[in-house]
Amino acid sequence: MTTLPEPDITEWINSPPLTLAGLRGKVVALHTFQMLCPGCVNRSLPQMQQVHSMRMPDLAVIGIHTVFEHHEVMTPAALKVFLSEYRLTFPVGIDRPREDGFMPVTMREWGLQGTPTTLLLDREGRLRHHALGAEADLVLGLRIGALLGEAPNAAATGPSCTTHG
After folding, report:
1. What Cα–Cα distance (Å) separates residue 136 from each residue in 2, 11, 36, 38, 121?
2. Predicted TM-score of the model (pTM)
3. Does residue 103 sit in helix, strand or coil?
4. C-alpha to C-alpha distance for 154 and 149, rounded to whole angstroms
5. Listed range (42-46, 58-62, 156-160) with the worst mean pLDDT
6. Model confidence pLDDT, tens digit, residues 8-53
7. Is 63 exposed, middle or buried, given 0-12, 13-18 or 19+ CB atoms closer than 10 A?
8. Please, what is the Cα angle at 128 between 126 and 134, to 5 degrees?
9. Sign of CA dihedral 11, 16, 20, 21
């Protein structure tokens, strides 16, 4: 199973700096988004906030703002206002832009195709699910619940990564 390289983050909002290695032992829901993405704003960001609001000790929800268009308006200051206005309280990292101005560093390194994208990591840090686009609440909840229900190291014998989207 795949493990992801650490995200290349320029700034953290709602949290001190985080690492995937530091989150081992928890199930991690990583959510990449852009604040001007309609699917992110209308569906997936509220969904991630709902998951985060459950305050489950073995689950971490992490957002990554990964800008590949409209760079001039999607600044860190604008993102902070956006997160406040939409009452999004989970940790959000800002993906490092690339010199060519297109696909940011983490988005490219993780092989992502767009936003919103949800990635689920098991307690060992292995990628177990990758979905481009919004998923139904029940489906996402079942996927997270299954990972939370696994004993530590169960991923070694569990199902490999599922892809949706």
Report:
1. 24, 30, 21, 16, 18
2. 0.89
3. coil
4. 10
5. 156-160
6. 999 999 999 999 999 999 999 999 999 999 999 999 999 999 999 9
7. buried
8. 130
9. positive
